[in-house]
Design goal:
It is a single chain. By secondary structure, this protein is α/β, with parallel strands linked by helices. 43% of the residues lie in helices and 19% in strands. The protein is built from five helices and six strands. It has a three-stranded mixed β-sheet with strand order 1-3-2, with helices on one face. Helix 2 (65-79) crosses helix 3 (123-138) and helix 3 packs across helix 5. The longest helix has 22 residues, at 40-61. It starts with 7 loop residues before the first strand and ends in a 5-residue tail after the last helix.
């Protein structure tokens, strides 16, 4: 009917957990953490409740490619306006195959790809990564001119620190 399939759910019971229930995605599965003393009926009720909460959260966080392009246009106006069309990408899109970097830019065809891992990060972090990739349309390398352009974003250092922290915890590069 709707075409949406129910995710694989793994329930993990904990003797230390007394009242709280939580859920998170782990790859393609949803892990639901519940107290060990919950009955099967309570487990079923909480699994349904947590799947609904997770779906609602993910729905709120889902950002479209069109929204990315709009965000890029706003950043160009704020920080790269004097570069005119040189700073304008042909496309900006979310990708799920970039687990080793936050974003990438191909200046030759003016395309920018942003890792889906940024979708639930603060907007100011996403703005930093987007501006970083937009700056590559003007200066392909990471030279002083490039960093001067990126440094126009007032939260550059904060965003870099945030991404370095995420990388340290998650084990991914912080480029």
């Amino acid at each position: 009917m709707s075409g949406a399939r129910k995710p694989v759910v793994e329930v993990r019971r904990s003797q230390r957990r007394r009242r709280t229930v939580s859920a998170y995605r782990e790859g393609e599965r949803v892990v639901v953490l519940i107290p060990d003393q919950f009955s099967r009926a309570e487990e079923s009720e909480w699994v349904d409740r947590m799947l609904a909460r997770l779906a609602a959260r993910e729905g709120r966080l889902a950002r479209s490619d069109a929204e990315l392009l709009e965000r890029a246009a706003r950043l160009i106006d704020l920080y790269l306006a004097e570069h005119g069309t040189q700073a304008v990408p042909a496309s900006v899109r979310w990708v799920t195959n970039q687990n080793g970097r936050w974003g990438s830019c191909t200046p030759a065809d003016r395309t920018i790809r942003i890792s889906h891992r940024l979708q639930d990060m603060p907007e100011w972090v996403l703005d930093y990564v987007l501006l970083h990739e937009l700056a590559h349309l003007i200066v392909p390398s990471h030279n002083a001119e490039f960093w001067t352009l990126v440094g126009r974003y007032p939260r550059t250092e904060r965003a870099r620190g945030y991404l370095e922290g995420v990388a340290a915890v998650g084990g991914t590069p912080s480029d």
